[in-house]
Amino acid sequence: MAPPSVETARERLAAAFGVASMDAFGTFSDEESIAAAMAVEYVRRTQAGRLPRLARPVTQNESGILGIDPATRASLDLLRARDGGTDHTLFAAINRTASAAGARLLAEWLAAPLTQPARIAARQEAWGWLREQTVSREGLRAALRKAPDIARALGRLSVGRGQPRDLAAMRDGIQAAREAENALRDVGALPHELTRVGAFLGVATGLEQQLGRALAENLPARLDDGGVIAPGYDAELDEHRALRDDSRRLIAAMQAEYAARYGVTTLKIRHHAQLGYVMEVPVAASARLKDRAELVLRQGTASNARFVTEELASLNTRITEAAEQAARRERAVFGALVEAVLAEADLPPLAQALAELDVFQSCATLAAGGAWCTPHVTEDTAFVLEGCRHPVVEAALSAGTRFTPNDCRLPPEQRVMLLTGPNMAGKSTFLRQTALAVILAQAGFPVAAERAKLGVVDQLFSRVGASDDLARGRSTFMVEMTETAAILNQAGPRSLVVVDEIGRGTATLDGLAIAWGVLEALHSSVRCRTIFATHFHELARLVDTLPRLSLHTMGVREWRGQIVFLHEVLAGTAKKSWGVHVARLAGVPVPVVERAARLLKELERAENTIPEPLPLFDTQKTLPPPPENTLRKRLMETDPDSLTPRDALELVYALRKEAERT
Questions:
Q1: DSSP label at 462?
Q2: What is the domain partition of the chain in residue ranges?
Q3: Distance between CA atoms of residues 240 and 216, nearest Å
Q4: Residue 586 reports pLDDT greater than 70
Q5: Helix, strand, coil percent content, the chain, rounded in steps of 5
């Protein structure tokens, strides 16, 4: 679909919303107008040329929304996990809504956190009040469970695809809103947000009463099934129904009369799709009826014969007309009810109010059920998380397993954290839980922590985990570098950047050089709050030249030749990578692990260290030669054929002692 011109776009939008000019809704840029016109046209095409009821266009103020790029959203599993599912996501971990509309709004707020502390505090005040008012919260939750999806039902009704239960959704939704209003009544002064939302609840009572009188108690799924309008609501419909139903009683009486007249007790009067009403008798009885002048044989089967009479033909005409007139009248009454619903201007804000109440009670229920805090969001650059947890990982833990919380402090004087430690120790989890805490706090939701004080983040960047984009010809390392470039080109002093293993996709020295340069840029040029996780322990030397850099590492203990991951973030830096130990835990064959351990010792003895000071690498300097391998020299000087068994055993012992000394 080719984009329209700006003038055409504005004209189409004005026509779609029934106004003379889009200026009635505010000022929109050319790009916004074209995008909105294309969206409306897409909806029109997918709905067979009819537009559903659409909310009026509103300019989205990007300055009030936390910037989260697609790579960060994918990295953090906000609404959809990396495997494509929705179970292990932040949304699933915090969702306590009672309605479909509330769940949609919760996802919307989660995907677009705020950057205005006042708006964030207003949301917190609303659910914080409900957290303390247990009776009101439970009453509100009970009312919301009864609330149908008013917005979706209105959409179907507005494009002519509504069914009887969509009208019932309007009736039940208005009733649920009134019950929600009652749950918030007589409990003292309400917070501003609850007062604002509550003003939309006690509306459309006349429409509720009309729908209550009009709709039958047991509604069919489809209008064509009949029985939608309750008896007594429309006199003309009742008249047609009476004629239709009386005709059915006449058929029963006529069947009894024919059975007695013709002496066939098994005679039945049935309705046939092509023949109408017919008299059906067994084949054995049909022989003595064929000579009757008033009976006309219309059809015979192997077991039955079907006859018609003038009385049956006349009755068939009357019943068919009555049924058709009843169905026609019922459709007309249904259409009038739909028009009344669509003319009720209070329904869309009522639906929005119920959804917002559902989000507030969801947050209150979440905060009341665990160690969740109300974060303090400020205009400065403070950053304190105490006892922070990863809500998705915590939710996935088995019963009885405790998640290890961690603190995270990024004050202005130490706004960059260098985090070292082995794989499986929990670096990625720590990075993600910090980013998720920011998203939850600025969405106005509870945070999985003991205490949180966060200065507003304007943009969030998370690069955790490796991926490729082979369909577009990009390797894992190219994707890594592209995302790193996006961070360095877009982040600013109020941003938060959490990155893991920058430079791991290339050779060791190349990767170290890239990681070094990126860390320096984040510290000195971008000047943002940063958590920089890495395996390059050499970067710890930068603490002497980068004044706002702090060193942290993941706690690891070695016990009886095995490593134990403590999942704690501690001050300091890792002394080793523990990669060989992790390989053993992963099930790498023992000979390979032992060979790797021996090679590691050889490489460590080579002392191929990075020269100081910067520049990082001196291309003129050559590495010192490795020390002489005395064990190998002695073995090469020994003649095995000249050794006695005792001499060979003594040689093995001697070599072992020498190996232990080295």
A1: E
A2: 1-59, 95-204+344-369, 235-333, 376-606, 630-661
A3: 17
A4: no
A5: 50, 15, 35
